[in-house]
Amino acid sequence: MTDKRIKWRSIFQAGFFLAALLISFSWTENPVLNLYTLQLAAILLALFLLLSRLQKQKQNKFNPNFFLNIVILTMISLLLIFSTGGAVSPLFFLAYFLVFVISLFISPFISIVFAGALGFCILFSQPLQINTLTAVASLFLMSPLAYLLGRYFLQFMAKKGEIKILAKELKKQEKNIASEESSALLWLSLDFEETILSLLDFLQIQLSKPQINNPEKQKISRVYEKSKKLLQSGRLLKEKIDEETDK
Predict the structure, then answer these.
(1) What whole-number distance in Å separates Cα of residue 234 and Cα of residue 241?
(2) Staple partner for 146: which of 14, 97, 103, 213, CB 3.0–4.6 Å?
């Protein structure tokens, strides 16, 4: 019963972040609603500050107020990113920040799901230009690092005994780790690898076009090499998760 509750909790939390992504993207894509993006961000910021003030009165960092704060922070960041150009936005670095925050304070696996969903959303909504491909590739590259860092962070803090609630959270995550690792392996084996292979095929086609000048070919070649390294790192992560599962 406990394992089922933990599993449903992870699904519930992932649903919140995916909903925040979908709402932010849909809002900024609508020409009328996009005019009020700053007003919506201000309202969310006021709600964030209110919940933060309530949060100071509690010691438990994993209460509902804290979780809602992370979701609100995610929506504010996504609204700013999407409304200022998406992958080419000067605020795109906030996407990296979100991936690490979700991994450290919510769940490492949810951070991978969020990064993948954000990357696919950008790929399917914006022209496949060099800057877009580079930004998405770097986001995918950050995901395995955030996943491992989130797990090691929880283990380190639990061993130090500095935050008791983190030790409890680690135990809950250990009970659910088999299910999450299976989901991560499935994602790495199917969605992740298939997407990167499709990207590599697309880049090869672009490189073979005679009308592309040398500077553009060099940029595409750099993205191609980074994508190959990203694919290799994903496969290494898959092997590492396999080893952890077999222990």
Answers:
(1) 11
(2) 103
